[in-house]
Design a protein that fits this description.
This protein is an alpha+beta fold and 163 residues long. The chain is built from five helices and three strands, in the order αββααβαα. Strand 1 and strand 2 form a beta hairpin. The relative contact order is 0.11.
């Protein structure tokens, strides 16, 4: 295992190297690709590279195939540039940021509609029970003034004066 700071630095370096090396790939299937993130295991042997592609799903699939075919070249160049004993194996994962953002926007819009519906139903309604269900300070003061006395007229729980 290596130091987490070193792992982060190496992951950032892998991201930068792959981003620069992708421009050198001469595959016509490669679309407008952007490297968004890279993560590397603690033993520095496996790296996962996240990327986005501008275009429809067919262009995304073609770019995935192009990256898969260039994986060997990218691995050797990244390993040489990092100067590690073992070149990390590369795995490319499509990062669907736009799809996730659209899904989150849809969920927020649905929550907003539900909130509006709840507010519409609650308009003009009253709470069940008392308007102030909590004890007031006056009631607590009255309760503190009462003392308990036993059958012999002495206070229960009172200490004797030992003085």
């Amino acid at each position: 295992m290596s130091d987490p700071a070193k792992t982060r630095r190496q992951a950032e370096r892998v991201k930068e190297l792959v981003a620069s090396l992708v421009r050198e790939i001469k595959d016509p299937r490669l679309g407008m690709v952007t490297i968004t993130d890279a993560r590397i295991t603690g033993d520095l042997r496996e790296a996962t590279v996240y990327y986005t592609v501008l275009g429809d799903p067919t262009e995304q699939a073609a770019t995935a195939a192009a990256l898969e075919s260039a994986k060997g070249m990218l691995r050797s160049r990244v390993g040489h540039a990092l100067g590690l004993r073992h070149s990390p194996s590369l795995a490319f994962v499509l990062d669907n940021v736009l799809d996730h953002a659209k899904e989150i926007d849809d969920l927020l819009a649905e929550a907003r509609l539900r909130d509006e519906e709840v507010q519409r139903l609650a308009a003009g309604k009253q709470y069940a029970g008392d308007p102030d269900p909590y004890k007031s300070e006056d009631e607590e003061d009255d309760a503190g003034d009462t003392e308990s006395y036993g059958s012999g007229g002495e206070r229960v729980g009172a200490r004797e004066d030992l003085g």
